[in-house]
Specification:
Elements lengths: L1 H6 L1 E9 L4 H12 L3 E7 L9 H7 L4 H11 L1
Parallel strand pairs: 1-2
Length: 75
Amino acid sequence: MHAAKECGFLITLEEHTVIGGLGEAVCSLVSEKYPVRVHRIGIQDQFGHSGNAKELLEEFGLTTPHIIEAVRKMK
């Protein structure tokens, strides 16, 4: 909750689907205690697939530049 109060928004990052994941758990908690905007970075509603780890992280927006851009958009 401290981060939510201090920043006014939260970003979650997970290497799997955002549905039913960490982001949803965070949203559930903060909506009850301290409602703030939450941006969930992860695999959107689609089936996962195999491939080179670096390429998959890029494809699903799980790289440093993508995360930085998400933070900038939330401010």
